[in-house]
Amino acid sequence: MRTKKQLPLTITLFASFMLLFIFLQNILFITTTLKDSKIVVEKEIDAKFLDAIEEKNIVLFFGYVGCSDICTPLLQELSTLYTQELQDSTTVVFVNLLPAITSDQPQLFASSFHEKFKGLYLTQKELYDIDREFSLFYTPGLIDANELSHSDSIYLLTKSEGKRVLKSIYTTHPFNTNQLTQDIKNTL
Predict the structure, then answer these.
(1) Mean pLDDT, residues 103-132 taken together
(2) pTM
(3) CATH, range 31-187
(4) Contact call for residues 97 and 137 (beta carbons, < 8 A)
(5) CB-CB neighbours of 97 under 10 Å
(6) Would you kindly state where each structural domain of the chain is located, as residue ranges?
(7) What average pLDDT is seen over the chain?
């Protein structure tokens, strides 16, 4: 008898938690606007894991080494827009979300798409530290624990007065490569 009464309460609490989670996620980007199939953010962020990168602009993508359904096509697409004109001021950075690999694998994976792409390995703690900063979504795969379900957003960051600024998040796919290229050129 007691479990029948607890089930509606459990469902209500779970639904309330999910709505609260969505609300809190939206608060993170309260100053954003959706424009040209991207979210315009213009927010200074704490991204210490990117401190060693000297280029003014970073095109940032989160995935995992060996991901064939999201990461491979997206990194291939980024390699086609990464022209010589952009290479002087911009780097593409792939951040691995699956720390159960060796630390050299993200760089090997990223550079297989373009020799100048950078691949970063972060520990589980480092991933937790940046999770909210970028509103990341990733969960272990249902069938294979060595795979992840993850979001496929692309982030454009720029350096302004020595600090990193998250300019835009590109969320629609296929994403508008012309828009991303133009946005990078506008920062130069």
Answers:
(1) 94
(2) 0.77
(3) 3.40.30.10
(4) no
(5) 21
(6) 1-30, 31-187
(7) 83
